Amino acid sequence: MVQEEDIYTQDGTIDINKKPAIKEKTGTWKACRFILVTEGCERLAYYGMGTNLVNYLKIRMNQGNVAAANNVTNWSGTCYFTPLLGAFLADSYLGRYWTIIYFSIVYVVGMALLSLTAFVPGLTPVCTADICHPNRFQTAMSFVALYLIALGTGGIKPCVSSFGADQFDDNDEKEKKHKASFFNWFYLSINVGALIASSILVWIQMNVGWSWGFGIPAIAMAIAVVFFLFGSKLYRLQKPGGSPLTRIAQVLVASLKKSKVVVPVDSSLLYETADIESSIQGSRKLLHTDEFRFLDKAAVEIEGDHAKQAANPWRLCTVTQVEELKSILRVLPIWASGILFCTVYNQMNTMFVLQGDTMDQHIGPNFKIPAASLSLFDTLSVIFWAPVYDRVIIPYARKFTGNERGFTHLQRMGIGLVISIFAMVVAGVLEVVRLDYVKRHNYYDLEAVPMSVFWQVPQYFLVGCAEVFTFIGQLEFFYDQAPDAMRSLCSALSLLTNALGNYLSTLLVTIVTHVTTRNGSLGWIPDNLNRGHLDYFYWLVAILSLINFFIYLWIAKWYQYKKVAVQPQ
Which of 23, 360, 56, 401 has the alpha carbon at shortest distance from 214? Predict the structure, then answer.
């Protein structure tokens, strides 16, 4: 028995041949290197196409600032909404490995189609005197390609980080210590791909052409799929645990049926299986908590709960099943507080780019850097702050907090929220200075104000710093606090904040445009930003972020972390 424990993983994972995973031959960093390279290539493809999408819609699709910005945020939001579908399929039926494979194929098809719309005659708009004239078919094909990509990424985003974390056995203390490091390396791989995309690929799109600018990301995505497949023999796979939605529904139905039943004070009297393992495949047992006591009614045994000696799951649920739902309910307020942070984050792809388009983008007399390329400073910020956080901030903070991680997940995310507020303030101050420069020199109709675009670097750098605290904190928090059999779904929930952040940004822009253009006014965000007040929009987002932070503090004080039952050795 001891020898078996030394040979096989103890978390129920299997290998690609559906046999128990052997520790020495599967998982850990030898498997994660394939996952990290895959993620780097996939993010290069995504950001290589998405970072400069607002300019593609303006130039090739002949859309105005507001229309282009809203289309980008709507599409980007959808990319973070489709993970709910991918996560459900992964947790319920397919498992994370096969979900990644199937959705990657859709992703590659979408990338290939978008590339074709950039250079195939008939699919490419006719352009005269730097003005393009797309017809309905060409516009439709571009958006079909974009939303195929949105569907494809829905199966990858919620699964890759969790699939990588699955390569480390939670029941092996030595392997478990590497899991936190994996999330840092995972986020670094994302930003290495983003760095190449926001620098080299954006420059290619603006100076060489959109055919090469979209073709290279398509090739990168194909490489990502091939490289992922190469590591198949090394992967550890978690078995899908059945539909989490069904289990949630069973708890709700059972608790409603027993609405008049009194929950015993002694939680040991609540129903739980006698086995060491949970009745839910791929999940450890969870200890009872005192919150949401009404749901405990589903675990109170009464006459008629058993049919042929087996418990009827629509009348009687285990404590672990009830605690699954409680875990989801506890993380929802934390999840909601991340929406406005994502609204700030997504300004990099819209308002930051439009602001940069009005500034001097030259480096020397001949070289011109696209405004969208400045997002590379966000990436450089992440690459700088991630190891600094791991090697410097955590050891220093540990001396004061006594926490092994330096900060708790909630503290880490809260610090990121504060930094994001400063990012908006800095962006607003820059716009005030820029508009004052325009006013003093009467540059209202000048396409590019003689003010270096590199004044935007601080706001990008602050957003990158905020990401290291909030986004990596979210990755760890949702994986750690999710029920074992719902980890993909909780990853999708964390990604959904980005979708809602995009939609909130669209809503804010729409409302601001509607309100500020009354009575013939140009509004805060006209096509000519020199005659607008983009700074007012930044102040609005900063104030909303400050209110959101105070709400987050109240939620974090209330939150209780998940309690997992310790299995006897």
Answer: 56
